[in-house]
Fold Cyclic nucleotide-binding domain-containing protein.
Amino acid sequence: MFQLREHLDSYHYHKCIIIPEKDVLDVDIVGTNRIANFRRWWNDLFLLSYECDKYKGFYSSSNALRMERYRQFRKHKNCIHPLSKFRYYWDFIILYVFVTNKLITRLTSNFLYDRLPISFYLFGAFLELVVFAGLYVDIVTGYIDIESRRVVLSRKKAILNYCEKKLFLHVASAVPLHWLMFLRYGENITCGLCKCNKFICALKIIDCFSLFRVIETSTCWSRKRYSKVQESLCKFLRIGTVTFATLIQLTELSDVFTLLMFFYNGEVDEESILSFRAGLKYGWNGVGNFMFFMFDIGKMLKPLTRITQINATVERFVLDKLFSFLGFIITYVFYAWAMVECFSFLTFVISAESQRMTSKQKTMNVLESLQVSDRLSEKVSDYFKYKSSALRLTEARNGLYVVLPTILKNEINLNCYFNIILRIPLFSQWPIPVLEQLTIMLKRKEYMINDMVTVVLKETYSISLDFSLHNIQAKVSGEGLMIVHDGVLAVYSSTNKELGHLIDGDYFGALSLVTDKEVYMTYVVAVTNATILFLGKMEFRMYMKDHPQLFYGFEMDLKKRYRDRARNQDDSSIGSVRSQ
């Protein structure tokens, strides 16, 4: 008779409740023609991206990502998500625009470059239009509230936040230098000597703010969207890009302040580098623009080649000495930055990666000596590629982590998993100290593709009830609550019918925490590599002895919930629940 009572108590004896896994674009944009596909692609650019590396700081599961996309598309459609694909690509584009425009401006606004093709000026004007478009993109993009750790998508709040924190620097960096030169010089814009005046000097000083935008947008190189090697290469690219833009700006300022000093004194100092270059261009040999550009590049990169010869300067003019010294200081800063990144990369490669490869090789050698099947060996090899294996190895072999006090390890677990257990509806009203202790008791389990998370053992028994015979299948007893931390699990009935999927944040087996005979009535199989957070029922009950009223209330509520569901369904629709 107890097996029939289990029919009412079991967590799995109810209809499978599946939350729709369709994306909002598939639901709200109907059709399969080209226009519908284009609309989905276009709108997907501005919605929260599933591929963004930063979303884990704000959304705990893939289901939370879908819900956020629903909210944005239906309520804040006119606002760009800061973690969207468009924003990711736009940051790359605007970075290249600023760097290219800074190099073009160096040529077109300098009186030493005479009679450049008009296409240079038109191209510079086009880049400034893109920069102006970037102002609009920044205004309509939502922002991340660091204090509350949430993404704000309200257009009004986004505009106010932008005006409060970024408006001045962004507008100052978007001054249309080429457009102003077109207005001032018209068809005579290609004349080099015409630009030897205070007006151009003032524009160049204002253009210094664009260096801030280069540094700001270059953070797109630091996003953890690549492998560790590619990520390190991207960081070095960022250092190189910022260094190049800074040296261009420093050379530009050197020429500007030297020229302003000449204007102030009313004469040209023959010992200055600027006077030497002017003589080289307009005096002795009349060097062409290309050769002069190569000479200019050599001057800009000069601090990089004389990093060990800071005292071997040949400058005689006071401003040349000052900017040469600043160039060396800035170069030392960037070299130190590069050395830190090199050390970080080598530490990862030599330490963590080598440990993992050594452990993998030793394990594979043991399996080979045991003559296990190739299929099993391949599965073990795949486990070492799973990101969770690196965490396991660090916990086991990292000396610093091993000797950490228990209280610190518990705090690490709280920081990683507390929000997950807090979002489970069953525990939403529980006291925070109790939930913190439950979080500490969680154990992490890894499953590879096609691994069985729960199994139904089919052994047939016959019992007599109401003068009829019924075949009852013996099942595997549930051992505790299981929460999907990452990955996808598929749920199958005992007849191998697929009932649904479990994703990040979903849970099952809760009834086993309060019953002794709760059994698994479905198969749960890992569709991808998955990590499960397991709360054992014995540890749970031992701890809940100190909170008997909370436990009995939880038991009654849980049993009533699933008993009511079981009574309202047919026996043929037995399945596995999806957490709500």
Q: What stands out?
A: The chain is about 55% helix and 10% strand.
